[in-house]
């Protein structure tokens, strides 16, 4: 991709913009995304089109969600892309992705996500997981480590539990700062999220699971017993076979789901 694309647009700090400029990395990401016409292809934050151009070249239509009005205007005027794109100007965090679903077609969602919204945006997208085939995101490497962490790791937390509840997580490649303009101060990585057709550990109410995880991880240094005392008793932990003296990062995803389901059953009872 030529660097001419950057003329006239300055990356904006408030949008967390860092533009991908390394063609080798771009090709590898597009290969991972595997664009096709059997899915609704959706890009979040196309920016200057580093991924947009090669993905659009492989499909009949590409839908993009972009907040920055200047960049939306630029896409509308792009000689090649303007015929291929369906552009939604707005905040992806507020966006109803259900409106993009077509009969018999699931979405493939991808993006080089602004670091400041990556976590809340993934939580938002999990709400539409049943309509999504794959998600490929460029994220801060540290966020990818959190997504793919195992119990007992420092990186393991609320994001880990919720992401692994909805999706299988596959790290794809690491991307150095030199692949971007301006170069970010952190390492980046691409991750593949594959929403489960059938969840391995179904929760009766995902809102309860979300609340339980937030409560458990609010004070990471404290034990489960301390953090969840308003939700679960010692008898409850014993019934589940979970050691209440453990810390939140030592508890597996299926154990969190089991705790949430017990909280739900207690309310119903």
Automatic annotation (TrEMBL):
Family matches, as Pfam families: RrnaAD (PF00398)
EC number: 2.1.1.182
GO CC annotation terms, alphabetical: cytosol
Keywords attached to this entry: Cytoplasm, Methyltransferase, RNA-binding, rRNA processing, S-adenosyl-L-methionine, Transferase
Listed GO MF terms: 16S rRNA (adenine(1518)-N(6)/adenine(1519)-N(6))-dimethyltransferase activity; RNA binding
EC main group: transferase
Binding-site residues, S-adenosyl-L-methionine: 18, 20, 45, 66, 91, 112
Recorded superkingdom: Bacteria
Domain Ribosomal RNA adenine methylase transferase N-terminal, residue spans: 25-197
Catalysed transformations (reactions): adenosine(1518)/adenosine(1519) in 16S rRNA + 4 S-adenosyl-L-methionine = N(6)-dimethyladenosine(1518)/N(6)-dimethyladenosine(1519) in 16S rRNA + 4 S-adenosyl-L-homocysteine + 4 H(+)
Gene3D superfamilies reported for this sequence: Ribosomal RNA adenine dimethylase-like, domain 2, Vaccinia Virus protein VP39
Compartment annotation: Cytoplasm
Secretion signal span: none
Similarity comment: family membership: Belongs to the class I-like SAM-binding methyltransferase superfamily. rRNA adenine N(6)-methyltransferase family. RsmA subfamily.
NCBIfam families attached to this UniProt entry: ksgA
Function text: Specifically dimethylates two adjacent adenosines (A1518 and A1519) in the loop of a conserved hairpin near the 3'-end of 16S rRNA in the 30S particle. May play a critical role in biogenesis of 30S subunits.
Protein name: Ribosomal RNA small subunit methyltransferase A
Organism this protein belongs to: Shewanella salipaludis
Organism phylogeny: Bacteria, Pseudomonadati, Pseudomonadota, Gammaproteobacteria, Alteromonadales
């Amino acid at each position: 991709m030529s660097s001419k694309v950057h003329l006239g647009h300055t990356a904006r700090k408030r949008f967390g913009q860092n533009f991908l400029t390394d063609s080798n990395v771009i090709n590898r990401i597009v290969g991972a995304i595997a664009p096709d016409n059997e899915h609704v292809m959706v890009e979040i934050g196309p920016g200057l089109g580093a991924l947009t151009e090669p993905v659009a070249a492989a499909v009949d239509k590409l839908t993009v969600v972009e907040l920055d009005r200047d960049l939306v205007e630029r896409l509308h005027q792009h000689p090649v892309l303007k015929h291929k794109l369906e552009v939604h100007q707005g905040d992806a965090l507020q966006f109803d992705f259900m409106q993009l679903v077509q009969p018999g077609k699931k979405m493939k969602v991808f993006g080089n996500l602004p670091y400041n919204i990556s976590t809340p945006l993934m939580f938002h997208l999990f709400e539409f997981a049943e309509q999504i085939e794959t998600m490929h995101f460029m994220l801060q490497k540290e966020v990818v480590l959190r997504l793919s962490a195992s119990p007992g790791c420092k990186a393991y937390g609320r994001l880990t539990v919720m992401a692994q509840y909805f999706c299988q997580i596959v790290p794809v490649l690491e991307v150095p700062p030199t692949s971007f303009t301006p170069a970010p101060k952190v390492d980046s990585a691409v991750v593949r999220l594959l929403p489960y057709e059938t969840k391995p550990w179904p929760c009766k109410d995902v809102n309860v699971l979300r609340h339980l995880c937030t409560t458990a991880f609010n004070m990471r240094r404290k034990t489960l017993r301390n953090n969840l005392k308003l939700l679960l008793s010692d008898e409850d932990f014993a019934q589940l076979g979970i050691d209440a003296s453990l810390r939140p990062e030592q508890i597996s995803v299926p154990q969190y789901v089991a705790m949430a389901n017990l909280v739900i059953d207690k309310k119903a009872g």
